[in-house]
Description:
The protein is of the alpha/beta class.
Amino acid sequence: MKKRIVILGSGESGTGAARLARFLGFDVFVSDKGPIKEEFKQELDTAGIPWEENQHTLAQILNASEIIKSPGIPEKSDVMKAVREKGINVIGEIEFGYRYAGKCRIVAITGSNGKTTTTELTWHLMHVAGLPVRKGGNVGNSFARMVMDDLVSGNAGRKDRVFVLEVSSFQLDDIQQFRPYISMLLNITPDHLDRYEYKLENYAAAKFRVSMNQRRGDKFIFNGYDPVIRENWKETGAKKVAIRKGFYKNGEIRVGNKRFDMTQSALKGPHNMFNAVCAIRAALLMGADPVKIQQGLNSFETPPHRLEKVAVIKGVTWINDSKATNVDSVFYALQAMDTPTVWIVGGQDKGND
């Protein structure tokens, strides 16, 4: 009898996990409480994967051997209460992808702020350096989708493959054995506290899960001057690489005896210099040539919605920073401004002070 895998949520991560599960020969069912995008419906239909939308039919869910849940589904939801009561093992798409990824090197990046920029930059530096690197996770393609692509193409046996993954606290909540070669913890500031009983220590513990399975030979790059990281420290088997103050001076980032010029970079502000030094550290640890890293720094374009210059109209520069969805990310953005600034803001409360 085939192992039955139920996927809760059919966004990019859920669809990627469903496709991988079906490719591996499992009995797969997808259930989404909301509507499923047409592009994902077409993928599921093409793969012969049954699905439902706008509901969770417990009779179809609670007979699962294992459940892969979307990171957006909270534990307090009715469906998760029923699943937990039934005692079914629950994992996330990142964990599922890791099981079948084979020999490869993973760089996993988390933090309250700067994850996407650092993920994009880390990928870009390694790509310019000629490494066989791909990016995904919480940005771009799901990890499971990339793993399936390798299995289909026959590349799963290549040990030189590198995956740079952005991972959120919600994704880390559902890992079990996931072990990156390099993990990064950029910072911890109050965010998503509504998912963590409004306790910062619970949120911090979720972030530290990025390094919980690392062992000797792995690397843990972290913010050595972040007070919340210090106060909520969790030990890891990885080599600790602390980023201390003083790495940036006179337009240069210093890593050991190496210097990297940031004056030609699109990255602006102290927070982005920190993101850059983390990416540089990771690229160096992966064997990237410092000359290529400098070329990557010069050619990098910042991701959309993150201090993105949209237009200059009558001498006024318009900047889209709509991904600044918590207090600290807004602070860092305003800190990067060097001219008089008008701040236009809106949004909803996520439990921040």
